[in-house]
């Protein structure tokens, strides 16, 4: 059971990684002059869109959280709306935090906001998919021994890796190498993406490695 | 050259404009800063070069091409672009040669080579060697050119060009003329004579320079100077003799010719040796001393760390680990001093003191090592305990990893010139990260959630404590403070697109009167707000009730200081011409108001030293019924005198009253504000210092100071909250993250008060606050400018003991809330919980140990930063940016270290002073 689930997780995560790679490569064929660095904003949009759709589809297909009771259509709608609101709020919150960390306040608002959207895609959207709009569950998952399934462990790892990647992405900005990727927010968004990809790959491996120690409480 | 009427035409790099403004006969400057721009300068020069050469209106023409250098930086030496550039240069030379006249000398020289990567600034062979190409239409070499041309030092260009142009050699030249260029077109003898004469001139100039230089500076070794002198005088004698002989005869005999040759050789020898002596003593680093200094600092850091870890552990610690090493150090110092006296050797003070420090450290480590086995044996006798200790230690190490990681990042940032340049943004970034990490870790450990009941656990439910919102608000405010403080940055020239903050310029420079008034009002309102906040804080803890001079000062002196500062700002920022007749009055006022502030502040500090108690004690026997103030503490009996407790909440008051009536037969004393004696004294001192430092800064930087106080307040509160939530077992030790965040805030506000670690950014204006353009000594302006520069270091270092005290001050509300909810009737227990800082008095040894530990931790973090700086300056001493970035940074950092340590000592001694005063107060009370 567990092995099979880990395999499913691995497959899902590899799909996500693949989609991230595709977002960097495919649009160049369709759209002339598209590069990740040159038309960074476009890439940000494409990447967050693709990752979010893929995540939603995966969530619908795999259904990691089997809800015991069937919910009515109205409930589903309200759930969906709630998710949208949460996502938007998390974008705003990320934007505020990024600005507080030293991003320019007025110039390049679009860049900062799109970066916030990307970060939200990598973190909040995952949470919404796996846990639903349930703050209590979020709080539980992001504390020690809080994860209750491998999906939640994977969520922990990918989220932390994305944020850590974004944090490390800020380091090359002051360097005087004059590279195109040192411009705000390219290094940070690339860092977040690499962190996310690394998290996606690490998570199944780590869970596989520690499968003896990980004893999830049954619900 | 310009002074002697030569027409110098320049074209190329616009750096020359800054170096020699308005010195050129004609000039064509082109922007040079952008390394990526390979062509602007070169194309500009090429456009003007040939017409200028052909026009003939010049004596010296300098064309500074930059393309090759930029190309090397950008692409490296092996790149198609470089080929293009070099080909272009080649073309240029080829066509330039055609434009030259017969009496023109063409010198093509590179000022440096480049490494494999195309950079330079180091001392490798490839970087310091460059090609020199000399061309003239008349033949230069009598015979064929030498097979293996020797390297020509760059300094040789100066005398050569000077003499060729017929102007005197510059005074400070130590180069040697290039003889080949002076051979003329006559026969060998006349050429030799000519060369001899130029060598003579050159040697005389160098000798003059060395003579006057050695009179001023002592760094040239005396015996070598002596040798040089002898060489010179003998050569000159020989020269005059020879000249006399040569003038006598018309046909020069061959033996005279050989003497000529040898004389030239002697002059050459003299010049080369002089140069060697100079380069040796000028460009001299002492690697041994550098390494020694680094090890000393590293050892001190290690010492601080170990001492801070040890201090809590052992009792006889002071004597063995602090006193003996001090004795050791002084013994070594005395011995060295004696040795100096006995041997009459020039042993400098620096060496003596460093040896003394090294000796005392050795003593410390030796004692520590001596104690270590004992402790190990002790631990070995109890194996289960040891293993538990190990696990705990491991966990403690893991807990340390985050703050130490941040510190490591900070130290690593010192090694990169870009990070040093951008440090104004690095420090806040790290501070924000540290605080966020702290909150995240608390959450991860489940400290923020209410311990869940079994039922909730089943549902996977957990809810936050209510305090978490408070904590989050504090963190958000802190982040906002950190971000806002970024608006007060000064600029460095390394970041060309940076604009210095508006707030740095004094108000007087504002043209718009309305804006000026608005800013002025804002600043004054902020000052008043600060005073109000401090006073209400004190009132909250019941300090300003008595009629002590200090309390009176807080009540009346603070507003007076504010009024004085406001008046000074008003006078200083008013337009000069608007006041007309009042000019003299203004002159007086500009001096008088700062002096009033200085005076008031020093009076306040003196009062603080004399009687630092802000406690109002009142015998309540006669007026037990009339007590309505909420600040009231009651000792339950004579024996409980140490438990004099301030009490804050009215809820408590009723229960107290009943107990008062019960115990009114005994002597009861109400003490107001005893719970925060220590911090009150510190806060008052900090406010006074803050006023002084604000006075030294330009008006609008008071906003930054307000942010500083706010941020410090937030940090203290976050620290307190985090501790309360983490449930620390040891209340007497300050965790590392608090110390590191405190220091990060200090360095952040160094930048946010408009400073940068470069010399042009020093606020020299500060030296003239309260003085009218004249200083009798250098000491006072140095102190003023230093205080201005290191304002944030001073404030944060003095406020450092607050990190220890604050949790005690703030513990009351949270404890009370929880307790009173659960068991509202157990007043007695509650009352004993509310000791606040009086807890510290319960265990005086622990208190002093904790202070020592805090100080050592602070010093450790400071020292680590300094160490990183020193190592960076040492390792990168041949770096291109060393004189622009690393060396100033090192100077500022070490000065900041000194200032911080002194202020830390002052802050701690202030706390000790308060402690003494409190003890004497208690003994007086007991006598009564």
From TrEMBL, chain A:
<feature type="transmembrane region" description="Helical">
    <location>
        <begin position="83"/>
        <end position="106"/>
    </location>
</feature>
<feature type="transmembrane region" description="Helical">
    <location>
        <begin position="112"/>
        <end position="132"/>
    </location>
</feature>
<feature type="transmembrane region" description="Helical">
    <location>
        <begin position="153"/>
        <end position="171"/>
    </location>
</feature>
<dbReference type="GO" id="GO:0005789">
    <property type="term" value="C:endoplasmic reticulum membrane"/>
</dbReference>
<keyword id="KW-0337">GPI-anchor biosynthesis</keyword>
<feature type="transmembrane region" description="Helical">
    <location>
        <begin position="41"/>
        <end position="62"/>
    </location>
</feature>
<feature type="transmembrane region" description="Helical">
    <location>
        <begin position="183"/>
        <end position="209"/>
    </location>
</feature>
<keyword id="KW-0812">Transmembrane</keyword>
<keyword id="KW-0472">Membrane</keyword>
<keyword id="KW-1133">Transmembrane helix</keyword>
<keyword id="KW-0256">Endoplasmic reticulum</keyword>
<dbReference type="InterPro" id="IPR009580">
    <property type="entry name" value="GPI_biosynthesis_protein_Pig-F"/>
</dbReference>
<comment type="pathway">
    <text>Glycolipid biosynthesis; glycosylphosphatidylinositol-anchor biosynthesis.</text>
</comment>
<feature type="transmembrane region" description="Helical">
    <location>
        <begin position="9"/>
        <end position="29"/>
    </location>
</feature>
<dbReference type="GO" id="GO:0006506">
    <property type="term" value="P:GPI anchor biosynthetic process"/>
</dbReference>
<protein>
    <submittedName>
        <fullName>Phosphatidylinositol-glycan biosynthesis class F protein</fullName>
    </submittedName>
</protein>
<dbReference type="Pfam" id="PF06699">
    <property type="entry name" value="PIG-F"/>
</dbReference>
From TrEMBL, chain B:
<dbReference type="GO" id="GO:0006506">
    <property type="term" value="P:GPI anchor biosynthetic process"/>
</dbReference>
<keyword id="KW-0812">Transmembrane</keyword>
<keyword id="KW-0325">Glycoprotein</keyword>
<feature type="transmembrane region" description="Helical">
    <location>
        <begin position="550"/>
        <end position="571"/>
    </location>
</feature>
<feature type="transmembrane region" description="Helical">
    <location>
        <begin position="701"/>
        <end position="718"/>
    </location>
</feature>
<feature type="transmembrane region" description="Helical">
    <location>
        <begin position="790"/>
        <end position="809"/>
    </location>
</feature>
<keyword id="KW-0337">GPI-anchor biosynthesis</keyword>
<feature type="transmembrane region" description="Helical">
    <location>
        <begin position="730"/>
        <end position="751"/>
    </location>
</feature>
<dbReference type="InterPro" id="IPR017850">
    <property type="entry name" value="Alkaline_phosphatase_core_sf"/>
</dbReference>
<dbReference type="GO" id="GO:0005789">
    <property type="term" value="C:endoplasmic reticulum membrane"/>
</dbReference>
<feature type="transmembrane region" description="Helical">
    <location>
        <begin position="349"/>
        <end position="369"/>
    </location>
</feature>
<dbReference type="GO" id="GO:0051377">
    <property type="term" value="F:mannose-ethanolamine phosphotransferase activity"/>
</dbReference>
<dbReference type="Pfam" id="PF01663">
    <property type="entry name" value="Phosphodiest"/>
</dbReference>
<feature type="transmembrane region" description="Helical">
    <location>
        <begin position="896"/>
        <end position="922"/>
    </location>
</feature>
<keyword id="KW-1133">Transmembrane helix</keyword>
<feature type="transmembrane region" description="Helical">
    <location>
        <begin position="591"/>
        <end position="611"/>
    </location>
</feature>
<comment type="similarity">
    <text>Belongs to the PIGG/PIGN/PIGO family. PIGO subfamily.</text>
</comment>
<keyword id="KW-0472">Membrane</keyword>
<feature type="transmembrane region" description="Helical">
    <location>
        <begin position="427"/>
        <end position="444"/>
    </location>
</feature>
<feature type="transmembrane region" description="Helical">
    <location>
        <begin position="322"/>
        <end position="343"/>
    </location>
</feature>
<feature type="transmembrane region" description="Helical">
    <location>
        <begin position="518"/>
        <end position="538"/>
    </location>
</feature>
<dbReference type="InterPro" id="IPR002591">
    <property type="entry name" value="Phosphodiest/P_Trfase"/>
</dbReference>
């Amino acid at each position: 059971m567990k092995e099979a689930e880990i395999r499913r997780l691995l497959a899902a995560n590899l799909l996500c990684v693949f989609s991230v790679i595709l977002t960097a490569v495919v649009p160049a064929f369709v759209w002339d002059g598209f590069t990740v660095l040159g038309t960074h904003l476009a890439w940000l949009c494409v990447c967050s869109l693709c990752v979010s759709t893929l995540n939603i589809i995966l969530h619908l297909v795999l259904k990691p959280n089997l809800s015991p009771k069937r919910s009515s259509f109205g409930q589903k709608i309200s759930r969906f709306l709630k998710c949208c609101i949460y996502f938007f709020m998390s974008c705003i919150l990320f934007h505020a935090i990024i600005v507080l960390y030293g991003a320019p306040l007025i110039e390049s608002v679009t860049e900062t906001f799109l970066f916030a959207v990307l970060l939200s895609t990598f973190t909040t959207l995952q949470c919404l998919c796996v846990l639903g709009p349930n703050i209590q569950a979020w709080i539980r998952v992001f504390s020690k021994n809080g994860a209750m399934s491998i999906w939640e462990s994977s969520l922990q790892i990918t989220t932390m890796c994305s944020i850590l990647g974004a944090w490390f992405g800020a380091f090359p900005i002051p360097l005087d190498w004059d590279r195109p990727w040192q411009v705000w927010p390219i290094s940070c968004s690339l860092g977040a993406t690499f962190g996310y990809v690394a998290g996606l790959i690490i998570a199944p491996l780590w869970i596989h490695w520690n499968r003896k120690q990980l004893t999830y409480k049954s619900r | 050259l310009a002074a002697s009427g030569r027409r110098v035409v320049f074209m190329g790099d616009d750096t020359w404009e800054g170096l020699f403004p308005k010195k050129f006969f004609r000039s064509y400057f082109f922007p040079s800063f952008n390394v990526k721009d390979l062509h602007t300068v070169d194309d500009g020069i090429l456009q003007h070069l040939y017409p200028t050469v052909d026009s003939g209106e010049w004596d010296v023409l300098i064309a500074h091409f930059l393309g090759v250098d930029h190309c090397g930086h950008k692409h490296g030496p092996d790149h198609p672009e470089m080929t293009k550039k070099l080909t272009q240069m080649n073309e240029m030379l080829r066509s330039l040669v055609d434009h030259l006249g017969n009496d023109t000398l063409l010198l093509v020289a590179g000022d440096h080579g480049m490494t494999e990567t195309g950079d330079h600034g180091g001392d490798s062979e490839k970087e310091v060697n460059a090609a020199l190409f000399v061309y003239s239409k008349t033949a230069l070499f009598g015979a064929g050119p030498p097979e293996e041309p020797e390297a020509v030092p760059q300094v040789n260009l100066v005398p050569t060009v000077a003499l060729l142009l017929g102007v005197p050699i510059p005074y400070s030249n130590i180069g040697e003329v290039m003889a080949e260029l002076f051979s003329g077109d006559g026969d060998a003898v006349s050429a030799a004579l000519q060369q001899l004469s130029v060598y003579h001139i050159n040697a005389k100039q160098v000798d003059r320079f060395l003579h006057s230089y050695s009179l001023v500076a002592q760094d040239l070794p005396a015996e070598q100077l002596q040798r040089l002198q002898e060489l010179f005088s003998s050569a000159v004698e020989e020269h005059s003799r020879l000249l006399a002989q040569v003038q006598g005869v018309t046909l020069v005999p061959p033996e005279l010719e050989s003497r000529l040759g040898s004389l030239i050789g002697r002059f050459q020898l003299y010049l080369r040796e002089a140069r060697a002596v100079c380069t040796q003593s000028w460009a001299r680093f002492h690697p041994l001393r550098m390494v020694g200094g680094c090890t000393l600092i590293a050892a001190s850091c290690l010492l601080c760390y170990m001492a801070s870890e040890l201090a809590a552990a052992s009792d006889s610690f002071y004597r063995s680990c602090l006193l003996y090493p001090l004795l050791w150090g002084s013994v070594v110092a005395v011995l060295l001093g004696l040795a100096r006296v006995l041997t009459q050797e020039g042993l400098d003070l620096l060496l003596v003191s460093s040896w003394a420090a090294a000796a005392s450290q050795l003593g410390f480590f030796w004692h520590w090592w001596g104690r270590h086995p004992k402790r190990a044996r002790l631990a070995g006798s109890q194996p289960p305990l040891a293993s538990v200790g190990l696990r705990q230690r491991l966990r403690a190490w893991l807990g340390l990893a985050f703050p130490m990681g941040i510190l490591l990042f900070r130290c690593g940032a010192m090694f990169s010139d870009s990070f040093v340049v951008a440090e104004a943004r690095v420090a806040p970034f790290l501070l924000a990260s540290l605080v966020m990490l702290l909150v995240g870790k608390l959450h991860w450990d489940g400290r923020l959630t209410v311990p869940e009941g079994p039922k909730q656990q089943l549902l996977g439910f957990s809810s936050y404590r209510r305090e978490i919102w408070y904590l989050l608000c504090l963190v958000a405010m802190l982040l906002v403070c950190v971000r806002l403080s970024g608006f007060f940055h000064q600029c460095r020239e390394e970041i060309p697109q940076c604009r210095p903050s508006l707030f740095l310029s004094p108000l007087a420079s504002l043209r718009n009167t309305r804006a000026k008034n608005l800013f002025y009002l804002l600043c004054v309102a902020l000052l008043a707000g600060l005073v109000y906040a401090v006073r209400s804080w004190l009132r909250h803890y019941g300090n300003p009730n008595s009629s002590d001079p200090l309390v009176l000062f807080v009540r009346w002196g603070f507003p007076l200081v504010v009024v004085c500062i406001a008046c000074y700002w008003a006078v200083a920022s008013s337009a000069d011409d608007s006041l007309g007749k009042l000019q003299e009055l203004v002159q007086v006022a500009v001096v008088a108001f700062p002096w009033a502030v200085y005076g008031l502040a020093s009076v306040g500090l003196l009062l603080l030293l004399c009687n630092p108690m802000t406690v109002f004690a009142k015998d309540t026997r006669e007026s037990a019924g009339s007590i309505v103030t909420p600040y009231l503490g009651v000792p339950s009996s004579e024996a409980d005198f140490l438990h004099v407790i301030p009490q804050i909440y009215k809820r408590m008051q009723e229960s107290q009253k009943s107990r008062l009536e019960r115990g009114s037969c005994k002597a009861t004393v109400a003490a107001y504000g005893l719970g925060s004696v220590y911090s009150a004294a510190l806060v008052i001192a900090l406010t006074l210092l803050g006023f002084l430092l604000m006075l030294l800064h330009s008006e609008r930087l008071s906003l930054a100071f307000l942010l500083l106080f706010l941020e410090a307040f937030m940090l203290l509160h976050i620290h307190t909250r985090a501790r309360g939530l983490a449930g620390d077992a040891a209340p007497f030790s300050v965790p590392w993250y608090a110390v590191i965040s405190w220091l990060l805030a200090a360095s952040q506000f160094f930048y946010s008060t408009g400073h940068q670690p470069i010399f042009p950014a020093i606020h020299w204006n500060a030296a003239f606050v309260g003085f009218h353009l004249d200083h009798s000594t250098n000491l006072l302006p140095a102190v003023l400018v230093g205080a201005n520069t290191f304002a944030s270091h001073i404030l944060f270092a003095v406020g450092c003991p607050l990190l220890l005290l604050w949790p005690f001050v703030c513990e009351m509300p949270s404890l009370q809330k929880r307790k009173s909810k659960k068991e509202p009737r157990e007043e007695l227990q509650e009352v004993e919980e509310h000791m606040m800082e009086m807890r510290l008095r319960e265990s005086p040894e622990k208190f002093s140990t904790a202070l020592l530990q805090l100080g050592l931790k602070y010093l450790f973090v400071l020292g680590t930063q300094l160490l990183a700086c020193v190592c960076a300056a040492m390792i990168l001493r041949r770096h291109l940016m060393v004189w622009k970035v690393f060396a100033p940074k090192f100077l500022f950092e070490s000065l900041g270290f000194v200032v911080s340590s002194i202020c830390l000592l002052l802050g701690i001694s202030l706390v000790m002073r308060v402690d003494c005063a409190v003890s004497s107060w208690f003994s007086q009370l007991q006598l009564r």
